[in-house]
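Ligand-bound model needed. NDP.
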Amino acid sequence: MTKTALVTGGTRGIGASISIALQKAGYKVAANYATNHDVAKTFTAETGIKAFSWDVGDFDACATGIAKVEEEIGAVDILVNNAGITWDGMMHKMSAEQWQKVINVNLNSVFNVTRAVIEGMRARNFGRVVNISSINAQAGQMGQTNYSATKAGIMGFTKALARESARKNITVNTVAPGYIETEMTGKIDQKILDSIIAQIPVGRMGHPEEIARAVLFLAADEAGFITGETLSINGGHHME
Ligand code: NDP
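Prediction:
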C-alpha cells in the first residue's frame, strides 16, 4: 500500500524539496505550513501536493491538523519534522519572547507533531521519523543561543525516541543541514554569508534538493537498521 508522508514546513525551502522528492518516489504527501497561504497555493498548483495550514507550536492545532491529514490523505507513516524559524540576537540582548518563540516553533513542535502520529505508527508497526536539525546545533553559532538550543534538543529527542520505538519498526533519525540556499539564509547579510562560504570545503552553499535526498534515503523501507543517527550534510563545513 502507498505510504503517506507528512512534511512540516513543507511548502517552501528545504521542506518543499522534501515534499517533492517524496512525491516523486511514489509516496502520498501532505505539506504543512504556517501562514504563507499564497506560497502554499502556488506550491499545490505546481505540484499537486495538498497543503495544510496550522501552527506546529500549538499542541491542539497539531492534533486537529493531523486528524485532517489522516482523513484526507492517509495515516502518517513518514513524518518529517522540518518547520523551523530563526530570531537571532546576542544572548545579552535576547528577549524572553525571542527565546520562547524559537523554542516553541522549533522544539515544542517536534513533540506536538510526533505525539499526534506516534501511537498510530506503533499500532501499525511501521514508522519513519526524520527530524531536521542544523550544523548550528553541532558547532554553535553566535547570535543563535535560542536556535542552537532547539536544534541540539532535537538530537536528544531523536535518540531517546529511537530507543523507545525500535521494536515497533519505527526509526527516528536527524538530518543536520549546513548552510542551504533558502529564504531563511537569504536573510543573512551577504558579507557574513561570503565569510561562511569561505569556510565550506565544497566552496558553496547547499541546495534544498541535497537535503531531500538524505530524507528520502532515511524514509525508505530498506532503512530499517538506521536509527538514532545524525546525518550531517554541510559540504564538509563541520565534521563530527
Ligand atoms: P524556510 O524559512 O525557507 O521555510 C520554513 C517553512 O516552515 C515554511 O514552510 C513555513 O511556513 C514553515 N513554518 C515556519 N513556522 C511554522 C509554524 N509555526 N507552523 C508551521 N509551519 C511553520 O526555512 P528553510 O527551508 O531554510 O529551513 C527548513 C528547516 O531546515 C528549518 O527547521 C531550519 O531550521 C532547518 N535548517 C535550515 C538551514 C538553511 O541553511 N536554510 C540550515 C540548517 C537547518 P510559511 O511558509 O507559512 O511561513
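The domain at 4-233 is CATH 3.40.50.720 (Rossmann fold).
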